[in-house]
Amino acid sequence: MISVLIADDEQPAIDELAFLLGQDPRIGIIHQASSGAEAIRLLTRESVDAAFLDIHMPGLSGFDLARALQRFERRPALVFVTADEESALEAFDLAAVDYLLKPVRTERLHRSVTRVIEAMKAQAAPATDAAAAAHAELIAVTLGGTTRMIRRDEVRYVQAQGDYARLHTEEASYLVRVPMSDLERQWADAFVRIHRSYLVAIPHLARLRLGGDHPSVTVGGAELPVSRRCLPALRERLESATIRPRT
């Protein structure tokens, strides 16, 4: 069970979130603070695994509080809970585990607690376990005017779209303002270039057809072309990683 802190300047919001968290058997002690300053005082006395922070609090805001927590020896996992859809990128820069929009839905909160627990496990893992930390990496994405955080290991493949990249997951696809060349460099540990327009996540490869006139790979039900230029590097990558496609 994990201990959590809820910091919000509106008591009804605290009560609602505390009730929802209390329904999750993974949650233990729930601390409450009605301001950023009160949250700081509480965190100097209590050991807390995760902090659910409102952004717009008078005095010390949720972001101010998050920056202050960076000086703590044991920093709780951060989850921002807000009605502000525009601040997800700043939250991501502060290494937030998740970004919840009010009103909070039970199933969405459950996923957030799961992310907190996974982040705690990654933090407790040996420093050499870089793969686990990379898989837990979060990306801020927008769909239909709503911003959310997705994990890198949810991305099955990336499609180039001009100066942007489209991230394809099981649930949806998201356009992000990052050139695919940057993602290719940053995600080289788990993704491989198969075409001028595609990067694929090696763990999500389901079927390979690398012979014949039209080589291709299947990822999440999508059949993607493999260019002749990328084919040798793809073969080498699969052989070095001893990858066996899922059937």
Provide structural commentary.
This protein is an alpha/beta fold. It has helices spanning 11-22, 36-45, 62-69, 88-93, 106-124, 130-135, 180-186, 231-240; strands spanning 2-7, 27-33, 50-53, 77-82, 98-101, 138-143, 146-151, 157-161, 164-168, 173-176, 191-195, 198-201, 205-209, 216-219, 222-225. Strands 2-1-3-4-5 form a 5-stranded parallel sheet, sandwiched between helices. A 5-stranded antiparallel sheet has the order 10-9-8-12-11. Strand 6 and strand 7 (146-151) form a beta hairpin. Helix 2 (36-45) packs parallel to helix 3 (62-69). The longest helix has 19 residues, at 106-124. The chain is elongated, with a radius of gyration of 21 Å.
H/E series: EHEHEHEHEHHEEEEEHEEEEEH
How would you characterize the largest beta sheet?
A: 5 strands, parallel
Class from secondary-structure proportions: alpha/beta
- Beta strands, count: 15
Kindly report how far apart the N and C termini lie. 37 Å
| Computed Rg | 21 Å
Stretches with pLDDT under 50, minimum 5 residues:
243-247
Provide the β-strand percentage band: 25-35%
Average pLDDT for all residues = 85
Shape: elongated
Instruction: Indicate the multimeric state.
Output: single chain
Number of DSSP helices?
8
